[in-house]
Amino acid sequence: MDGLLSALDGQGADLVVVCQRSEEARYAALAPRARVVAGPATLAHRAFRLAWEQSGLPSVARQVGAEVIHHPYYTVPLRAPCPTVVTVHDVTHFSEPDAHDPIRAGHLKSATRTAARRATRLIVPSNATRNELVRLLGVDPARIDVAYHGVDRRVFHRPTEEEVARVSERLGLHGRPYVAFLGALEPRKNVPNLIRGWAAAVAEMPEPPALVLAGGAGGRDDEVDAALATVPMHLRVVRPGYLSWSSLPGFLGGALVAALPSRGEGFGLPVLEAMACGAPVLTTRRSSLPEVGGDAVAYTEPDAASIAAALRDLIGDPGRRAALAEAAFRRAERFSWAESAQAHLAAYERAAAVSPVRG
Questions:
Q1: Tens digits of per-residue pLDDT, 213-227?
Q2: Packed helices 191-202 and 304-315: angle between N→C axes, nearest 10 degrees
């Protein structure tokens, strides 16, 4: 949410940013007009942080005379001195429960239900997420504001040839073509089916492109290793872990295809980031992803056979890849943090006009 904070600050919002001590300098740099308040050292521990949000955060709000509290991640203070706004990033922990760690999903379900009852307003990053909140939890749609994410074009841009070459060398590919995945290796991201689909698509090619699975923490899919064990010996999978921010344009924009066949997303920021780098993108039509990709990306069903067919078609059609890359880059220009900030400010104004107390 760094881009949102900077955009809010740039538009003159009267902000008090409450954060952990370790983040104080970073937030001060992101929002130089804002007042940054660091909480106690115990906020580094999750249990203490959740408790402090219920007591310490309302106290800070009283001290600074806040008109609205915006909590950007699911939870809401139950006894706030002013109206509250909560961001619900996605609800796939309800609609795709087997794609999440059960303990984390249980926490998110509880927090989402509480926010749905008690928050003055809810902000979501897509119409799909709004519709699911209404369908699954019966939330009044009039209380929900949609604010799309933006993309930081200083980070995500069309790469130079030098940027592409640098990443290729770091990955040990030395100019060899590859299919790119960027994200956490968690069940929702559908990586096992991507591995199986890629292997089926390229196995008979004379010069098969590699598969690069970049990313790391944030979840664990035990089926990934099982899928990797089925990959034929002559195919290459690269697992570099995290890539630096400066490497991402070259990685995404230099790929034959950025394949992100998720089972569901609240928004799908990696898809937008790949689009902004001028990559031809393959994703699914699940949840919010068509809102982001529109007609500027290729789509597949999430099963391995469908992914194989879609990849085979894209890899074999340079003209279509070039057309998608151009369309994706142009469509990504529609998503900005400035517009997201305007939508957030409108939500704050609506919240400030009503009582903070909900039943």
A1: 998 755 566 799 999
A2: 50
pTM value is: 0.92
SS3 22: helix
> Does a structural domain hold residue 155?
no
- Does residue 52 share a domain with residue 20? yes
Tokens of 213: 């699975």
321 and 343 part of one domain: no
Residue 234, Cβ neighbours under 10 Å: how many?
A: 8
Residue 156 lies in a domain: no
3 state SS of 258: strand
284 in the same domain as 175: yes
Q: 129 with 263, same domain?
A: no
For residue 122, is it within any domain? yes
C-alpha closest to that of 132 among 105, 78, 96: 96
12 burial (CB, 10 Å; 0-12 / 13-18 / 19+) is: exposed
Do 184 and 263 belong together in one domain? yes
Residue partners of 200: CB distance under 8 A and separation at least 6: 304, 305, 308
Q: Identify the three-state secondary structure at position 88.
A: coil
Find the helix packing angle between 2-10 and 337-352, rounded to 10°. 70
What CATH number is given to the structural domain containing 191?
A: 3.40.50.2000
How far, in Å, are 173, 198, 213, 226, 234 from residue 204 at the CA level? 20, 11, 21, 22, 10
**Distance of alpha carbon 167 from the chain centroid:** 23
DSSP 169-229: HHTT-TT--EEEEES--SGGG-HHHHHHHHHHHHTTSSSPPEEEEE--SS---THHHHHHT
Euclidean distance between CA atoms 86 and 134, whole angstroms: 15
Number of domain units in the chain = 2
- Condensed to tens digits (0 to 9), the pLDDT of residues 255-285 reads 999 999 999 999 999 999 999 999 999 999 9
**Contacts with 138 (C-beta within 8 Å, 6 or more apart), sequence order:** none
- Please give the pLDDT value at position 95: 80
Asked, for residue 110, whether it belongs to a domain, the answer is yes
Residue 322 pLDDT exceeds 80: yes
* CA dihedral for 45, 47, 49, 55, sign (positive or negative): negative
Which residues form the domain of 218? 161-332
- Cα–Cα dist 324/295, whole Å: 9
